[in-house]
Amino acid sequence: MKKLIIHSVPVVVSFMWLMAACQTLNPIIIKGPDFLKFYLILVLGFYASVFILNSLREAISETTLYFTGFIFLLGTIKLIRGIMLGKPIGFLIMILILECIVAVFLIMSHINKKIK
User: How far apart are CA 74 and CA 72, in angstroms?
Assistant: First the structure.
């Protein structure tokens, strides 16, 4: 339960910023620069919470992996929408690639701790 609350904080903060800045709770419909700000707040906050849990010697749980998957899914949906509309998507692709790399390390860490 503690991990769920800690991982929910960056999600709540990013959606509060989205509501304050764009007056919407739907991140799919906002324009590119605003989405990138929202997505960076979400991703950086989430990975900060992951590293805080790691520093507290907490194991990476399935909850962490689910949050990682949902954040990546949100970015992928926006990427597909950007491709369909013919918008520039370079920064989003770079963020998604970095997110994939970090997710692989999280999954490997999760598997190694399960084996031990």
Answer: 5
CB 93 within 8 A of CB 76: no
Identity of the residue numbered 96? L
3-20 residue pLDDT tens: 788 888 999 999 999 999
Ramachandran quadrant class, 61 (left: phi over 0; alpha: psi -120 to 50; beta: rest): beta
Per-residue pLDDT, 50: 87
- Give the whole-angstrom CA distance, residue 8 versus residue 41: 13
Decide: pTM greater than 0.70. yes
Identity of the residue numbered 1? M
* C-alpha to C-alpha distance for 53 and 49, rounded to whole angstroms: 6
Q: DSSP H helical segments within the chain, as ranges?
A: 2-22, 32-55, 62-85, 90-115
